[in-house]
Amino acid sequence: MNIFKAPTACLFFLFSSSILFAQDSDWRTYKKSTDSTAVVVQNDTIKKELNYNENLGNVTIIQDPKIDSLTIKIGEKPFINGYTVQIEISQQKSIIRDSRYLFIRNNPDISLDEKYDQPNTYLYAGRFYDKNSAYKFKHKIKANFPDALVIKKKLSLPSLKLIDKTEDNK
Fold first, then answer.
1. Which DSSP letter does residue 83 get?
2. What is the DSSP-derived secondary structure letter of residue 129?
3. Cα separation of 137 and 16, whole Å?
4. Residue 106: which of 148, 140, 151 has the closest Cα?
5. I want to staple 99 with a disulfide (CB 3.0 to 4.6 A). Which of 65, 88, 105, 169 is the partner?
């Protein structure tokens, strides 16, 4: 353990000294003049003095912590825990395209979902709310997709259909 004390102490001294000599202003902006006031010329030729030596203000935010959790929850997209069947995974787009074509030709009414997660592309079929339905569907497509897997996945909520209100439908 004594071997690590000297290098650790040296690293601590190096980092603490760099904090002391760090820049106090943004290097991308112009340098502050040595005197405490500066003259700013505006388009309307009015001179205004700026005082850089004034005390900085303080802001105190007092809020319930539930507000932060609510803000995070609202920012997320709503979802339902469900299941889908992964019918293909590949790095080649041609394989994914061929599997998509084969699946759509045999099952035109089932939705497909494609997800690209480097370096692979995943092709998912169906949206199931229980595991048994997903396994039934997997068994149905087993002849064309023998490597299909049932995957637990967060499914986005289905879109709502607008109903036209007519005189008959009130």
1. E
2. S
3. 62
4. 140
5. 88
Enumerate domains of the chain plus CATH numbers.
79-156 (3.30.70.1070)
Q: How far apart are CA 158 and CA 86, in angstroms?
A: 19
- Summarised one tens digit per residue, pLDDT across range 82-123 is 999 999 999 999 999 999 999 999 988 888 989 998 899 999
**C-alpha span between 83 and 79 (Å, rounded):** 12
- Per-residue pLDDT tens digits for 112-161: 989 998 899 999 999 999 999 999 999 999 999 999 999 999 887 777 66
H or E, element range at 127: strand 120-128
Residues 6 or more apart whose CB falls under 8 angstroms from that of 37 comprise 49, 50, 51, 52
Residue in the structure block whose two tokens are 């005390």:
55
Pinpoint the alpha helices (H) of the chain: 2-20, 65-75, 93-106, 131-140
Look up residue 135 and give its two tokens: 């396994």
Which whole-number Å values give the CA distances from 170 to 63, 163, 165, in the listed order? 45, 11, 6
CA distance 28 to 147: 57
Q: Which amino acid is at 144?
A: N
